[in-house]
Structure formats: C-alpha cells, structure tokens
C-alpha cells in the first residue's frame, strides 16, 4: 500500500472531492509525491491523464485543471517533480529545485506513469507544462510511455533564448559559476514571479496568480526557491538534446504543442521552428496574446488551450466510453 503524503488544502484553492496524495518510489529509491484526482461518480469515463507541472510548481496548483479534465471524462494523477512540492529533494539538506541532469526527471516520469497505471485503467494521455514539457519530450524520445495514447504540451521549455549569442553567453557564465563552486547557488537576477501580480510575466489573471501565492504561503516548504546554476545548466543541456538533428523523429506519435505568443519565460519562436522541422510529429497551436502559464491565464486564452486539447484528444482517442461514470481503480 502506498504511503500517504501531505495534501495542501486552503479555501482559495479547493481540491476536488476524493483527492488523495501518496508517495511513490523512484528508480533510485527517492520518494515522489503524486496526487490522484479520481473521476467523480456521475461522469462518463474516457480515460486518465498524467500531468507533469513546470518549474517551481506542485500538484495543488492544478486542482482547477483536474476538475476541467473530470468534465471531459478523465481521471487525473499529478506528479510533483523531484525537488519541488513534497517530492524528495535531490540532495541532503534544503536543496529545493537542485538538479545536475534533467534525465533524472525522465526516469521519475516513468515512476509516475506506473503509479497512474496502478490506479487507473487507460487510455492514457500525458499533459505537461513548461519544464514538464521538456521532460515529457525527452521521455517520449527515449521510448518511454508505452501504452500512452497522446501528449499535450503547454508552453514547453524547449529553448530559453531566441538568440544564439545570449544562449552561448549564458552557458559561459554558468560554466564559470559552477567551476568556482556556485552550482547550488541561485542564478543572479532570477525574480520570484509568484510574489507579486504586478509585473509578473507568467499570467494576466490576477485571481489565479493570487491562488498560487496563497498555496505557497500556506505551505512554504513546498516551494522550490529560485533556479540554481546547476539546474539552469542541466536545462540547457536538455534543450541541446531536443534540438539535435532528427531527435524528435523518435516521437511515437504526433504531439500537441500549445504555445503562448507573449511568452517571456521560454522561447516561443522555437515552438514554431520545431513544428516546421517535424510536421508529422508536432501539431502546433499558438494562442495570441497569452503569457507563459496558459492553464493559469485569463479564460479567453485558456479556452483556446482547451479547444486545442479537445480537438487533439478526439483525434487520438475513441469516443466510446465506459458506462460506469467513476474512476476505474486497478488495485
């Protein structure tokens, strides 16, 4: 039986009925927290979604998204990335968000998928945001996710800067910092975007921005803290692997990539480049006017994400659903 884990409950971010948090074991024995949102009774069942959040995020932030997936007939399992939320830190002590190789996240995603399959019958869809989208692409390219019917990515972190010179300069700074022992130090100039709504570059929706801030205030130990030198170097190395010629030819199916036109967090132009390079593997939808956090944006932008998701799922999954309208546990 899985070990129970903390679940953050606050008035500003209500969790769907039946939400359960548990720890699952990663390949190296580390504990990863997953939050299971079973499909409520009365809903026609279509499948189950594995949701991988982005940098600094954790499961409770996606409670609203889980409810919207319930409306579409999907049970949901959200996985806290290692070093974030209540998943195990990567090093002893308070090393929130510290990582030296993104491939540890790729391995962890397999453990999370196994946790979903242990709790829910398929078909299965992967949904991932930002850093989670980068992890998802590497995972799929490596041949993982057998039995997955599709994947929908929200503003994936496939590239940080549009200019090669800026990327090269950043890599040089990171190498120098790591060489003098600053790998676990915070990257200078990285501002906490969840602290204040004014001036943030993530979302134009004040209510949703405030909701995550309240979650962080209620559970400060779940915060990841600012990005570290090692983390950013590892992220850029993962970007290089994705950008290698022919890398995404190994995707097992066409992936939905929803991009935000006003993204100042990742390089949205790279999404268009990937779609042009891999027309048989990437289905691109660009949401004009949206900021990076598409699923935390104003409704007029979120509606466009959901329209793209619904169309993609209709292509990937059969319409037929089970008669029983509840989750199909596999315990």
From TrEMBL:
It comes from the Bacteria. The keyword Aminoacyl-tRNA synthetase does not apply. It is an enzyme of class 3 (hydrolase). GO terms for molecular function: phosphatidylcholine lysophospholipase activity. Its EC number is 3.1.1.5. Keywords: Hydrolase. SUPFAM superfamilies: alpha/beta-Hydrolases (SSF53474). It holds the Pfam family Hydrolase_4. This is Lysophospholipase.
């Amino acid at each position: 039986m899985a070990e129970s884990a903390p679940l953050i409950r606050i008035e500003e971010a209500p969790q769907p009925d039946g939400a359960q948090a548990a720890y699952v074991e990663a390949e190296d024995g580390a504990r990863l927290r997953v939050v299971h949102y079973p499909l409520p009774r009365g809903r026609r069942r279509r499948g189950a979604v594995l949701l991988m959040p982005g940098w600094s995020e954790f499961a409770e932030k996606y409670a609203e998204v889980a409810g919207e997936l319930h409306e579409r007939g999907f049970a949901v399992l959200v996985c806290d990335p290692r070093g974030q939320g209540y998943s195990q830190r990567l090093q002893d002590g308070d090393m929130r968000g510290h990582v030296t190789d993104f491939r540890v996240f790729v391995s962890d995603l397999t453990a999370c998928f196994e946790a979903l399959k242990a709790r829910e019958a398929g078909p299965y869809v992967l949904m991932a945001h930002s850093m989670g989208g980068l992890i998802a692409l590497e995972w799929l390219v490596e041949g993982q996710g057998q039995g997955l019917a599709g994947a929908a990515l929200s503003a994936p972190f496939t590239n940080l800067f549009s200019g090669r010179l800026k990327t090269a300069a950043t890599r040089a700074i990171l190498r120098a910092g790591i060489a003098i022992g600053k790998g676990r130090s915070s990257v200078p100039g990285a501002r906490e975007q969840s602290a204040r709504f004014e001036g943030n570059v993530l979302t134009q929706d004040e209510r949703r921005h405030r909701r995550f801030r309240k979650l962080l205030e209620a559970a400060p130990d779940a915060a990841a803290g600012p990005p570290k030198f090692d983390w950013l170097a590892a992220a850029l190395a993962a970007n290089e692997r994705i950008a290698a010629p022919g890398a995404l030819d190994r995707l097992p199916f066409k992936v939905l990539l929803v991009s935000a036109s006003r993204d100042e967090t990742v390089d949205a132009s790279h999404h268009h480049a990937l779609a042009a390079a891999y027309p048989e593997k990437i289905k691109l939808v660009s949401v004009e006017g949206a900021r990076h956090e598409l699923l935390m944006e104003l409704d007029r932008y979120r509606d466009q994400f959901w329209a793209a998701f619904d169309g993609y799922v209709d292509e990937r999954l059969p319409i037929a659903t089970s008669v029983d309208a509840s989750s199909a546990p596999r315990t």
